[in-house]
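Fig. S4 source data, part A: sequence.
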Amino acid sequence: MSEKQTCTPEALVNTLLEDFKTDRIINRVDLFDQPDREEVSEVLEKLIKIVFPGFFREKSYRFYNFNSRLTVMIEDVLYLLNKQITIALKQSPEYAEMSPEEREEIACDISGQFILRLSKVRELVETDVQAFYDGDPAAYNHNEVILCYPGLRAIVTARLAHELYLLGVPLIPRMMTEEAHSRTGIDIHPGATLGRHFFIDHGTGIVIGETTIIGDYVKIYQGVTIGALSTRGGQSLRGVKRHPTIEDRVTIYAGASILGGETVVGHDAVIGSNVFITSSVDAGARISSKSQELQIKNGRDHDAIDGVTAGDSVTASDRETDTNWFYII
């Protein structure tokens, strides 16, 4: 066959079809055998509108009253969720050998249980909104927190996904939190346990692992990692607690890394910026790394900055009056 003939659409398609017949883990020819990302995303959007009634418009329908609006949204969520959970259950060995009818019945039961848990989720989310408002002087009202803050979006998504995770739903909880991850830059695994009044400020680059336990009134700033000490064990570590426990009223400042399943950060501790922790921290402790020296030399003798003559060396601590200063924006 000539080079020109091998480049025809028919020849190219045949080449790829032959490749699709190989036993690759990335080959799934049946598109309807996998949960649909767009439908899972649609479910998430509708759930967020249910969690925050009156804050986000539903443009697909016209409603005469709130009751009819909520009824239609719940019906939509149940329909889509039943469908996607039925498909996702195939991913679990527990349900893989069941008939489609049996999986559909189980999915219907799970969806109903999940909807009943929304009141609990909303109760927790209300405490989060208050935590954001109380913790950030840049927030002028609760509406601003709900409409603008990516940290809240990530937390709400994680709380919703966590309930599906607890109900044993495969894949879909992770699809939800990865949707939030892609939108906010905040990566919270749906297996993580989040306490009340949880505050994430700025948020970009935060990672919270699957077996993390976070207590009440915890504050976390951008770039924080609450992760595993090592994942070299791979699948052998499945089900093992490999992420830290953060107790009540802990504050973790930007860029800190806290690692390991046996690591416990005691209540009321303050973790400073850019520290690296792999062992437990006592309650009430203040952990910080020594600031690097900042050299300021502008080469002009007559210039001075804040009373410091040009050419003099200035450390970061010279510009701070609080010895317990931590990096915040």
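Fig. S4 source data, part B ends here. The longest strand covers residues 225-227.
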